[in-house]
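Quick bug: XRE family transcriptional regulator output formatted oddly.
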Amino acid sequence: MRGAGDELSIGERIAFYRQRRGLSQSVLAGLLGRTEDWLSKVERGERQVNRIDVLLELARQLRVTLNDLLGEPLLFEEENSDDDVPAVRDALLSPQRLSRGLFAEESAVEPVGVGRVASVAEEGWNQYQNGRIGHVISVLPMLLEQARLLETGVQARSADRRKSLAVSARIHHLAATSMSKIGEADLAWIAAERAMRAADGSEDPLVLASAARATTHALLVSGKFEEALRIGETAARLLETEVRNGSPAALSLVGMLFLRAALAAARRQDRKAAEELLTQAEVVAFRLGEDGNHWQTGFGPTNVELHRLAAWLELGDPRSVVERGAQVRSDSLPVERQVTHAIDMARSMSMVARDEEAVGLLLRAEGQAPDLVRHSSVVREVVRTMYRRSPVSSGKSSPLMALAERCRAVR
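Here's what came back:
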């Protein structure tokens, strides 16, 4: 159930699912190739599992999803509003999407206009990059319905049809990225698949490459790292001609595809592949020559550096992340990217027991984008870990305690 058990740690969830399967600690530890003592410490919260490939193997042996262990998705509630994710689900799973023949009369309904829908979609992207994920979720149902009408409405001239499909792909990309951000893996995958299908119909390689980027997001949040790596590399080859011609849009999209593929490689503990892909992205960023934001990518030299730090973190090197991250300024990037970097840095600092600095980073990030911080399973686990090892004398009025309550990290 969404929102249930938010206060449980990863270790407590492992224990719960292990007991539900009727496995003893010794049996599960044996299946993992670990010691019973290791598993016991993980379940008690005395040892943290910081490698996602280990969590994936735990999930596989327990027959649950990665998101089950991470405690995602969290019930998403923006201040003064209800949880809008069910409305997004309804829009993605609308019966009218199943058949044009069955719903022929409704297929004759015109959308409000492709230009106007495109403008609203781009504003949604701007809000996403500004960290207002709650606002984006609230407008997605309307945007997804308009995308459906654009795709299934009265047949227009082929050029208009392709433009309509391109706008639909952008809307579904936004939906996939937003759902990935809050851990709704299944919805992210549905939206990404529809983004790819619409992009195919648009016959625009840039639209298709952008939709492929959405697919890598959905695959990463589902723990499908090899598939994400393959999609990213394949889509990058699609734009070889545009890249040779120096198109800023193509350079930005290819650069981001390399970065997403690098993160996928890092999560499956393939250091060599991750470094090679980061180097390829670095070359593309050098050609672009700036921290741009073509196609809402936020791509450029700085974003390459932030992804390098994220990859190092996934590869189990938090000390290098802390040392090098202190020299990186992310002010030139969209707020969403700045906050994601701050969360990575806070997680790294927590792993090397620099809790006070980690809390300060999270509080500043929360000030920039409250939704992104308070509804992050990564933040929740980091905050819970720091809270449990903080001195009792810190009291319930401490900034850490207050943050833990806002993130639902404690009961």
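Actually, after a second look the formatting is fine. The chain has a mean pLDDT of 87. Closing.
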